[in-house]
Amino acid sequence: xxMLSILDIYFRSPVIHGMRQQQSPLAxxxxxxVLFSADGLRAxxxxxxxxxxxxxxxxxxxxxxxxxATWGVSHARVPTESRxxxxxxxxxxxxxxxxxxxxxxxxxxxxxSVWNQSRRTWQFGSPDVTPMFSIGIPHVTSDNFDASLVDxxxxxxxxxxxxxNKVIALLEEAKQNATLYAELMSDKVVLF
Length: 192
Prior knowledge:
Layout: H1 2-10, E1 32-34, H2 44-47, H3 58-65, H4 82-91, H5 114-117, E2 120-125, E3 140-144, H6 157-176, H7 178-185, E4 189-191
Parallel strand pairs: 1-4, 2-3, 2-4
Helix pairs in contact: 6-7
């Protein structure tokens, strides 16, 4: 009985169903959201540096300290894998424990996210993360790198380079494509 009570407490879904959609009375802080997420990049690294020892992330640090952007720090909760962390950032709740049964490969419980509420979303990245935010959402465009690019013993920049090249290609295409340009410049747009 004691063992079952632990399972009942810790394996309860955080997703609440049957709620009406709510609108915020506040204006959005920006027309578009550009969300950067980097595994293993600790928030304290953005704030390191001094006149004697420059920051390792000078551009991002300047964005944080100059008030030209709204930013936040996400705090991890176990399991500290990419997928559960992205669910917390994008959907606003910790991953449903029932997803452990699928090895965190799919979320068995449908949920709302920032992507659902956007007018248009483009996302580039890991095949472990992006599909769960695009299934059944026609206004989300996903481009995932091949899982073979992930090699923790090799060069970790390969996946970063893939995403960077895809984002640059999207922005370059928008210079020639008026429809794409208009979509990127509209409000409620997410680039992840």
